[in-house]
UniProtKB/TrEMBL annotation:
Biological classification of the source: Eukaryota, Viridiplantae, Streptophyta, Embryophyta, Tracheophyta
InterPro entries in the record: Leu-rich_rpt (IPR001611), LRR_dom_sf (IPR032675), LRR_N_plant-typ (IPR013210)
Main localization of the protein described in the UniProt heading: membrane
Start and end residues of each Leucine-rich repeat-containing N-terminal plant-type domain: 29-68
SUPFAM superfamilies membership: L domain-like (SSF52058)
Protein name in the entry: Receptor protein-tyrosine kinase
Membrane topology: Single-pass membrane protein
Length: 116
């Protein structure tokens, strides 16, 4: 028979593990949230950004996005995509971003200082 203390300990461990997973899930798509904010700020008549779904766990599966081995966004390739609009300051939150290609689009305004 299982003692009440070992049963409680197992239940507590399970709760802690679930809490950790929930926190990771909730914060795990912050890069996706940033990119989705960019998507919303742009006009995309050719549906180039159609795969940018904020409900997915990681933007690493989206077209035009490259991630490193730790699943952090390192590259956004949107050159020659017929996009118009403006950049969002939240792009500065992509801490691992190395390349942001936007040539041959109609993106207006200044480069947000948050991009460094």
């Amino acid at each position: 028979m299982v003692s009440p203390s070992s049963s409680s300990s197992g239940f507590f461990s399970l709760c802690v593990a679930l809490l950790i997973l929930m926190v990771r899930w909730a914060s795990g798509n912050s890069e996706g949230d940033v990119l989705y904010a960019l998507r919303k700020s742009l006009s995309d008549p050719d549906n180039v950004l159609e795969s940018w779904d904020p409900n997915l766990v990681s933007p690493c599966t989206w077209f035009h996005i490259t991630c490193n081995g730790d699943n952090h966004v390192t590259r956004v390739d949107l050159g020659n995509s017929n996009l118009s609009g403006h950049l969002v300051p939240d792009l500065g939150k992509l801490e691992h971003l190395q390349y942001l290609e936007l040539y041959k689009n109609n993106i207006q305004g200044t480069i947000p200082p948050e991009l460094g």
